[in-house]
């Protein structure tokens, strides 16, 4: 088991390094520091002196990869690649254009993002898997047909419709919860109820259809017929055999959600005024704060790789054959 985990960690390291190199190339080679300065200061009527001052203030005036003017190790450390890219591996993301520490902002905003994402993830998974099992239990009936039609209709509607419709109906018309905003502590519950419910409802359609397809593939396998021949009820077959053997594809689908647990939802946090990482990313994009955007891209790729490793490890718990292979 330990050797299996070590192999997965060794596989993930070059992937993370490669993503870091691609991000560096996109931000500093394709889009040079001079281009960043022009976008910030205005393309028209910007002087070379203003561009150079902007670069010096943010540390973008140094060479990209190798500093010939420095001595010793400074030839590598006094470069944009080392200070703006390599240092992110130790959690040093630098400062935003407004002077605030990016790492500190990320730590402070992670809590509100998790407060929304974790309930949506856990409750949404429970609701969609249960609904999919219900449709499979009543497969080839009018209930199954109606459920599939409902799922197709729900997944055809944009999540933006659920957000705006929920805000208008629940907050503006019924005055049950605030329309937007956030406070700390237990009082945050009233601000989180509506975003969480909308997050669950907006994901029911696509997730339920996906899980239903997985369960239908398993329901016709030989081990299911053997379980029925032994006298097990249909509920026992579904929950004890079909659900257990369908866990690998379910876990594979779950991994894509893991980055959003920490990164937050861009639309939800922006529309509900939640000071999480999603709204932080949107604000940085609108303000063209390249340091923040670069940090969020790196964190997103890191979390996705961590999710892949966690998924590989979870495979061994639900199917020991993976570990043996």
Task: Please sum up the structure shown.
The chain has 325 residues and is mostly helical.
Indicate the CATH architecture of the largest domain: Orthogonal Bundle
Principal-axis shape: globular
Q: Looking at CATH, which topology of the largest domain would you report?
A: MetI-like fold
Q: Total number of helical segments?
A: 17
- How many structural units, i.e. domains? 2
Question: Helical content, roughly?
Answer: over 70%
- Summed over residues and divided by their number, the pLDDT gives a mean of 89
> Could you tell me the radius of gyration in angstroms?
25 Å
Overall structural class, as computed from helix and strand content, comes to mainly alpha
Q: Oligomer, anyone?
A: single chain
Q: How many strands, what sense, and barrel or not for the largest sheet?
A: none
Number of strands: 0
Kindly, what is the distance between the CA atoms of the first and last residues, rounded to a whole number of angstroms? 11 Å
CATH fourth-tier homologous superfamily of the largest domain: MetI-like
CATH class category label of the largest domain: Mainly Alpha
Approximate strand percentage: under 5%
| Order of secondary-structure elements | HHHHHHHHHHHHHHHHH
Low-confidence stretches: none
Can you describe what's shown?
The structure is a single chain. With 325 residues, the protein is mainly α. It folds into two domains: 2-90, no CATH class; 111-324, MetI-like fold (Orthogonal Bundle), CATH 1.10.3720.10. It is built from 17 helices and no strands. Helix 8 packs across helix 9 (189-219) and helix 14 (266-272) crosses helix 15 (277-286). The longest helix has 36 residues, at 102-137. The termini are close together.
């Amino acid at each position: 088991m330990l050797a299996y985990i070590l192999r997965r960690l060794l596989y993930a390291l070059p992937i993370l390094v490669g993503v870091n190199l691609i991000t560096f190339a996109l931000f500093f080679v394709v889009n040079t520091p001079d281009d960043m300065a022009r976008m910030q200061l205005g393309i028209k009527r910007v002087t070379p002196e203003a561009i150079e001052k902007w670069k010096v203030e943010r540390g973008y005036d140094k060479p990209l990869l190798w500093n010939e003017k420095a001595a010793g190790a400074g030839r590598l450390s006094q470069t944009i690649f080392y200070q703006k890219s390599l240092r992110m591996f130790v959690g040093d993301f630098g400062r935003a254009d407004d002077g605030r520490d990016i790492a500190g902002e990320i730590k402070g905003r992670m809590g509100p993002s998790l407060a929304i994402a974790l309930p949506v993830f856990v409750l949404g998974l429970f609701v969609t898997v249960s609904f999919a099992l219900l449709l499979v239990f009543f497969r080839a009936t009018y209930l199954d047909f109606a459920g599939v039609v409902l799922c197709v209709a729900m997944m055809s509607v944009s999540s933006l419709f659920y957000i705006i419709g929920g805000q208008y109906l629940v907050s503006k018309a019924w005055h049950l919860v605030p329309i937007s905003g956030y406070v700390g502590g237990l009082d945050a519950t009233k601000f989180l109820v509506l975003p969480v419910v909308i997050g669950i409802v907006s994901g029911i359609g696509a997730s339920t259809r996906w899980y239903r397809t997985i369960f239908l593939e398993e329901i016709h396998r030989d081990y299911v017929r053997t379980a029925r021949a032994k006298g097990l009820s249909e509920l026992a077959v579904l929950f004890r055999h079909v659900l257990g053997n369908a866990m690998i594809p379910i876990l594979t689908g779950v991994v894509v959600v893991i980055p959003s647990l920490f990164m937050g939802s861009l639309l939800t946090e922006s529309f509900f005024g939640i000071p999480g990482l999603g709204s932080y990313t949107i604000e940085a994009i609108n303000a063209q704060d390249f340091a923040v955007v670069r940090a969020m891209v790196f964190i997103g790729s890191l979390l996705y790789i961590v999710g892949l490793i966690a998924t590989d490890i979870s495979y061994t718990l639900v199917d020991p054959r993976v570990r043996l292979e």
